[in-house]
Amino acid sequence: MTFQTWAAFAAATAVLLVIPGPTILLVISYALGQGWRTAFPVALGVALGDFTAMTLSMLGVGALLATSASVFAALKWLGAAYLVWLGVKLFRAGGTLDARPRADAAPAWKMLGHAWLVTALNPKSLTFFVAFLPQFLDPKSGFWTQMLIFEATFIGLAFANAMGYALVASRARAVVRNPRAVGIFNKAGGTLLIGAGIATAAIRSGSN
């Protein structure tokens, strides 16, 4: 794996992680209800959930790669289209962020388990990884080495992202609840996702 490939993966991952989804909404809900002390257990649960979903997805991608090169190539095209679709959906989301404060005083282990379940068992996570990861895999390089590097990078960034969201939500609650701020954030994130999908498709065309 070249440094450029890893850097592109890390940059794309950072952009995708900051876009609010079910996992981030859960993080914000705990932080709004119970404050900054929820940050570590919830972020750890998110990281473990991403590890579970990403491992299952990588094993599936690896099986496709070993079975058929043409199917793997088609998956890359579908992944590019999927990124564009996610971007359009986020761009049109407006200023809504359905994250309500959780009033129940849950212990740390319960918050960790809840975050793990929401992240790992979300079908969208599995679909996302299957669509996203092939864009950066090199079929001619060692699959397991790439898998280890990509997983370590993604999980580290996912943990940091969840921690950041929890701390910001607990300290700057007005920003999280501001429809204008959320709307700008959604449009910026959607634009970046659409651009990532188009760039991926352009790379595919250039390589062919």
UniProtKB/TrEMBL annotation:
UniProt entry tagged with the keyword Transmembrane: yes
Record carries keyword Protein biosynthesis: no
Annotated keywords: Cell membrane, Membrane, Transmembrane, Transmembrane helix
Signal peptide positions (record): none
Topology in the lipid bilayer: Multi-pass membrane protein
A Pfam family matched in the record: LysE
Transmembrane parts of this sequence: 6-32, 39-65, 71-91, 112-137, 143-169, 181-203
Matches recorded under InterPro entries: LeuE-type
Compartments it resides in: Cell membrane
Protein name (record): LysE family translocator
